[in-house]
Amino acid sequence: MKLPVAFGALGGLLLCAAVAASSAPAGHLLGSAAPVRRTAPAPYQRIVPAPAAVAPGGPGYTLGPRTVIRTTAGSGEVRAIGEQLAAAWRRTARLPLPVQETAAEAVTDGIRLRLDPYAGSFGEEGYRLQSDEDGVIVTAFRPAGLFRGTQTLRQLLPVGGAPWTVAGGAVTDTPRFAHRAATVEAVRPEGGGVARLKAYVDQLALYKINVLRTRGAWTADAYRELVRHARGRYMEVVPEPRRAEGSAVVMYARHEGASPAERAKLAQAVRAGARVILSPADRALSVRRAYEWDPGDCLPGVPRQAVLGVAAPPEYEQFQRVLGVAELGWSPAAALDWDAYRERLAAQGPRLDAMGVRYSRTPEVPWP
Q: Which of 42, 106, 148, 365 has the most other CB atoms within 10 Å of its CB?
């Protein structure tokens, strides 16, 4: 069994980012005048990561005191997803939002979370979300897909205030890459302990991160608690591998271009069947340069099918860059557009503030 090669070579990423930045208008570069604030994007244009396909239109559904979250009958896993969704909303909507299992396909009012055994094209994490005046239906092939769909649904509702209306329309969504990771250092009691990291997992899950890479020395109890919490968010916790001679898992954290020898070694590993995880290792990258590169077409000798996914390095008060990596890992290549992304990122500002996320209000983004 071939293990993935984790390649955090900034050299490859800087080459891609630099090409994109060199052709950009001067007004978009870091240190230039603040961007002009345009009209706030409509609900379906605020979603991060950008979905694969969106069709807004028609009347939406307004949550109220009688709204019920209905889940596939007989599935405790789906019910748990419904309970998580209800708990997230109850804190701000002040609605009862009971969760009920139902087997009746004809019941479409309220919020419906359903597994469809014939929706295999969605894969493990894909989903379809449909909203009209009668209710919202999230359909998936696997529970992980339902969970991802509920995170999109959460982003379609306002951060606070009324009305709590999900705009009419539909989303059909599947991830581009299977591995979309963030990285955390070992927990420290003075930094908030495991509770802070569990909140961080919830924040990452909202943006469809599905792997949490850990660094440093952990106590067994802290690690078990983190793994248990992440599992409920369909996120795998894995220790970041250290480079070892002969290892099939290699991490690079470089601050200059990768040498020809390193690139040749990577290409050789790919030809042998290894998979690649790409990571922008330089924390000095601007939000734009960290976003404007294509993981599927970035390194010579590494075809798209050899790329398993992307990983964000540890980020302190730089959550806005983690969101860029999340979008690079999830959204189709055709959806990756800086001008559209910076507007959607700006629209996430109030939500990040409400969640207590540490991030930097960089001048490249027209934050509200």
A: 148
